[in-house]
Each structure stands twice: as structure tokens, then as C-alpha cells.
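In the laboratory, one determines a bound structure by crystallizing the protein with its ligand and collecting diffraction data. In a computational setting the workflow is compressed into a single prediction: the sequence and the ligand go in, and a structural description comes out. We illustrate the idea with MRU.
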Amino acid sequence: MVKTIEWVHGRVRMLDQSKLPLKVSYVICKDYRKVAEGIKKLWIRGAPAIGIAAAMGAALGAQKIKAKNFDEFFKALQPVFKDILSTRPTAVNIEWANNRMKNLLTANKNLTVPQLKALLIKEAKEILKEDIEINKAIGKWGERFIKNGDVIITHCNAGALATGGYGTATGPIRMAVQRGKKIKVIADETRPVLQGARLTAWELMKDKIPVTLIPDNTAGALMQRGEINLAIVGTDRTARNGDVANKIGTYPLAVLCKEHGIPFYVAAPLSSIDFSIPSGKFIPIEERDSKEVTNVFSCRIAPHGVKARNIAFDVTPAKYITAIITEKGAFKPKDLYKLQKNNINLDKIRVKH
Ligand code: MRU
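The predicted complex, in C-alpha cell form:
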């Protein structure tokens, strides 16, 4: 399976997804600023993948710090966390990764600076490893909702490329295929950056999972014809009430699913759930350069001087979501907040297939 990001000999190596599928090339980052640039320019993208990149970026930034003790080291690392956090606002995973690294450091104040630097590298590698396991667990829980013969629509890319590997929304799909179910995937092309056309189609074809590409505006017609019977998408940030921010176009897809009685699932690792916000209204939504709308790659497709909006994510209200599939099981959006509690019997609130 394709490797999105890796720690190799003291550097961060990332697949440059902005060039896919035309060119498979890698960027070697020797400096954390290069990692931050990669997140901003979508060389690496997808909520879990940018969380891993943030952790590796912090570990990379740490190596160059000259400090005599914990306090100096921790202080010098703050601008690194800040720069990485400022790259993209919607996915909660960058903040999550920063907090995990910060908490690890404060729990190990007694270590020497070289030991702290080594600890950060170890943790970043661990986050990558864990992420793949989490996606497989999402796959295991989500696969139960997929029947032999299902045609599953997905939006954007919440696949191996958007994660450490295996994918969140593609987790249940891959698991279903592994378990011998004959399924088909419909990939929305996902204007304007075309993650569905460029990335989801590419990675599923590479892994021989049947995939058909459609323009975003075709989903309704296929649903009317009864040619789609399930939807699974990813999320960048899910609020405590189960509202989900994901790639622009997810909300209209969910509304269409409701209209046609098609179950709409969201695959969400716990790291992308922001329990600190009560609803989707509080999710910061990234707005990107309008050039991504007026140009496709370097080709201009709109008149010079036209105004264009490029809102990168939308919020799907919880009422449209059948269940949220996490590594701990699938849950109704209304029960999501209960996952915060330690002594909850998860079996009582898991959605049965
Ligand atoms: O702008 P992108 O490509 O980073 O947007 C990615 C998505 O919207 C994904 O669906 C989301 O991050 C979930 S990835 C497992």
C-alpha cells in the first residue's frame, strides 16, 4: 500500500499528492517549515495525515533547537507548534497532534534535551503506526454495514492517502473486499481540487477495488436510478453533537442520501472528534485561494477578473448522519458525547448492523 508519510533517516518524506496521479514524487523535508509548507500546499492532506505530519514536523523542528534544559527547550518549540497549527484550520488533528506532543514533553520534564528530542521522534512514529491500526479498526466496525453487491459513494479522499494507511472511509470498503464481498465504489470527483478524481480513483484502482468516477453533480441522478445504496465519507472535525465538517460537497451529498433513503456513514477516528465544541457552528472553515476554482492545474477555465469563492469544507448537520464509525465502534451522532466518559459501557450505545 502507498506510504503517505514516513520518518526516514532524520527527515520527513512525504508523497507529493498535488502531483498525483500524473506523477508519483516525494518531498524530503529537512526543516519543519517544509512540512508546514507541504500541509498548506496540499502535498499532504486529509485530517489524519496532516496530524501525523504535524507530529513529525514538531519532532523535526525539535532536532535543531539548542537548549540547556527542559524549560528552554519547551519554550523554543512553541513557534514550531504555532507555525504548523497556522497552516490549515479545519481539521482538528493538527491541534490534537500538537497537544499530544506537548503533553508528552511535560510528562517527561526530568529527561535531558537529547532524550526529549529522541522521545518526540519516537512519538511521531508511534502516531503513524497507531493511525493505521485505528483505520483497520474503523474498517472492522464499518464493514458490517456493507452488504455483498453494495454500491458505495464516497466524497473527496478519506483513503490511505489521507491517513497513515488503509484510510478511514475506505477502511470499511477495504475490509469488505478483504472479506470477499463484491462491492463497487462511486468516487465523486470533488471540485475544485479533485481529490476524488486524482486520489481516490488512483488508490482504489492501484488496489484493484472497482471504482467509477463521477462529476459531483451526478450523484443525484444515480440515486434516482437506484444505482447507489450506501455512502461513507471522512471528516476533518466532528463536533460533540455529531455535526461533521468534511470536504465541500459532503453536505449536499448527505441531503441527497436522506431524500433517497440511503444510509450515510461518517468514518471518524476519535482524534478527529472535537469534544470541546458543542456544534458544527464552531468549526473553523478554511477558505482557500480562488485560483483553485478559476484554474484547473495551471489551465485557466474562467474569465479573467471573475469573482470566485473557494470554501474548502462544509458542515453536515448530525440529523443527516446514520452513524459515525470510530475505532471503538459505530455510534449515533446523538451518543457521540458519551465517548468522553471513561466508565461507559460502549456495547449499550453501539449501533448494531
Ligand atoms: O482538503 P483535504 O484534501 O485535506 O480534505 C480532506 C477531506 O475532506 C477528508 O475527507 C477528511 O480529511 C477525512 S480524511 C480521512
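The chain is about 40% helix and 15% strand. Keep in mind that any predicted model is a hypothesis to be tested, not a measurement.
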